[in-house]
Design a protein that fits this description.
binds adenosine monophosphate, five-stranded parallel β-sheet, alpha/beta, Rossmann fold
C-alpha cells in the first residue's frame, strides 16, 4: 500500500495521515516532520532547511529528494508507506516516479483534502499559537498558501490524469474527515 496525502497547508494532512497509516499498518512519512526534527537537532540538513521553512518557501529538491529516497528505503517502509508533504513540485513527482520504478512499485491512491482557504488561514494561526511553529506567522502563512497554489496544486491534475486521486472534503470534525477518507479508500487492498 503506497499512498500520498495532499492538500493546502492547514487542511489537516498530518492528523489524517496518522489515522490512515494506522489503519493500513504503514508508516506515515512527513517531510515537514523530518525537517523539523533535523532543525531541532541542529543537523547540517536542519540548518539548510530552516532558512527556507522560516520564509514559507520550499526546501530545494536536491535536499528533499535524497531525504525521501533514504527514508522510504528503510525497513519499516518495505511494505508500503503514506507520504505526507511530498511530492510538492513537478520535479519531485518525477523523482518519486523514479524511486518507485526502481523498486518495481506504484502508487495505489492520492488522497486530496479539499478546504476553504480563509478557514485554513484561521486554523494555521490557531496552530501557531498552540505549537509555537516559527514558520506560522501571518505573512509566512500567506506565503505558504501562495507557494502551494503555484507549485503543488498543479500536481493534483497530474495524479488525476493517472486515475489516482480520491478527493475528500477536509472541512468539519477530525473524526468525520477520517470517516470520509476511510470510505474513499475502502476498495483498496491492504497489501
Ligand atoms: P509541512 O509540515 O508539510 O507543512 O512542511 C513544513 C515546511 O517544510 C514547508 O513549508 C517547506 O518549507 C518544507 N517542506 C516540507 N516538505 C517539503 C517538500 N516536499 N519540498 C520542499 N519543502 C518541503
Amino acid at each position: 500500500m503506497r499512498l500520498l496525502i495532499m492538500g493546502p497547508p492547514g487542511a489537516g494532512k498530518g492528523t489524517q495521515a496518522t489515522f490512515i497509516a494506522e489503519r493500513f499498518g504503514i508508516p506515515a512519512i512527513s517531510t515537514g516532520d523530518i525537517f523539523r526534527a533535523n532543525v531541532g537537532q541542529g543537523t547540517p540538513l536542519g540548518v539548510e532547511a530552516k532558512r527556507y521553512m522560516d520564509a514559507g518557501e520550499y526546501v530545494p529538491d536536491s535536499v528533499t529528494n535524497n531525504m525521501v529516497r533514504n527514508r522510504i528505503a528503510e525497513p519499516d517502509a518495505a511494505g508500503g508507506f503514506l507520504l505526507d508533504g511530498y511530492p510538492r513540485t513537478l520535479a519531485q513527482v518525477e523523482e518519486l516516479d523514479g524511486m518507485l520504478a526502481e523498486s518495481d512499485h506504484k502508487l495505489d491512491a492520492v488522497v486530496v483534502l479539499t478546504a476553504d482557504s480563509d478557514e485554513l488561514v484561521a486554523r494555521l494561526l490557531q496552530r501557531a499559537q498552540i505549537e509555537g511553529r516559527a514558520d506560522d506567522t501571518e505573512d509566512v502563512i500567506r506565503r505558504r498558501q501562495e507557494v502551494y497554489l503555484a507549485e503543488t496544486e498543479p500536481l493534483i491534475a497530474v495524479y488525476d490524469a493517472r486515475g489516482l486521486v480520491r478527493a475528500v472534503d477536509g472541512m468539519g470534525e477530525v473524526g468525520e474527515v477520517t470517516q470520509r477518507i476511510a470510505a474513499e479508500l475502502d476498495d483498496i487492498d491492504e497489501n
